[in-house]
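Posting for a labmate who doesn't have an account.
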Amino acid sequence: MKNIRILLGYLSPFKWQAFKNVIFNILSAFFALFVITLIKPFLGILFNEINPDDISNTVISFSSIGELRDTFLASIITGYGKLTALMLVSIIVILASLFKNGFIFLAYNNMASMRAGTVRNLRKKMYAKVLRLPLSYFSDARKGDVMTRISNDVQEIESSIM
């Protein structure tokens, strides 16, 4: 638990980026779910399994998004035809996929800048610490050993952040 508090201390300057990362991940998950729910009507129209007469008789219920989607799709099919409904569903699936991938990109972008900033701050602190060490420390320890410890510790913290 103490290690997590220390790690959060290094992440505290990047609170806003961490918040944006969480929001972008939530939005990408929402659009991924949206794309998955649109696959069924897409295939239903494609293989002539959706009958607009069966769907349009249902009452609109806001408790189920699937019923609302099917009712909207049935009204498009009866008003404009199956080809237009298929094109509309295709465009919506493509747009939702683009939004999903865009939000994933933004989440990774925020995570990369947060990781780079944390590693930069950590390296600055380590460098300042090494400069404050007495000369007797460097005569007792090998220089390569000190550099290996520093780089391995920073790399371990970087992987913890990810």
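Reply:
Got it, the structure tokens are right above this. The chain has one domain: 16-161.
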